[in-house]
């Protein structure tokens, strides 16, 4: 289930760094392609705010890994 105001995105990224972890939310800077409501943003570095991101990917495997995954309640920040 998505939370109030939550949207589900499908993204494929090359992970570059784990920047911030506050209050259960983690911010990740990534390089790659994101599909937001079906609109692709190619080759751009974006920041993702994701709750409990560690449950989706293993932090030890974040660097130089390209993998698809689903995000809930995501914000795409420039």
Please, could you describe this protein's structure?
Residues 1-23 form the signal peptide. Keywords: Signal. InterPro entries: Transthyretin-like_sf (IPR038479). The chain contains no helices and five strands. The protein has a domain at 19-56. It has a five-stranded antiparallel beta sheet with strand order 4-1-2-3-5, with no helix packed on it. Strand 1 and strand 2 (25-36) form a beta hairpin. It starts with 7 loop residues before the first strand and ends with a strand. With 78 residues, the protein is mostly beta strands.
Summary tags:
single chain; 78 residues; mainly beta; 5-stranded antiparallel sheet; 5 strands; 0% helix; 63% strand; disordered C terminus; Transthyretin-like_sf
Briefly say what this structure is.
The protein is mainly β and 78 residues long. It has strands spanning 8-22, 25-36, 39-51, 66-72, 76-77. The protein has a domain at 19-56.
């Amino acid at each position: 289930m998505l939370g109030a105001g939550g949207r589900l995105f499908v993204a494929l990224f090359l992970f570059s760094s784990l920047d911030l972890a506050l209050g259960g939310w983690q911010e990740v800077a990534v390089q790659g392609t994101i599909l937001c409501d079906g609109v692709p943003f190619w080759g751009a570095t974006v920041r993702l705010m994701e709750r409990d991101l560690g449950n989706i990917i293993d932090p030890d495997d974040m660097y130089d890994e390209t993998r698809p995954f689903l995000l809930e309640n995501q914000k795409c920040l420039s």
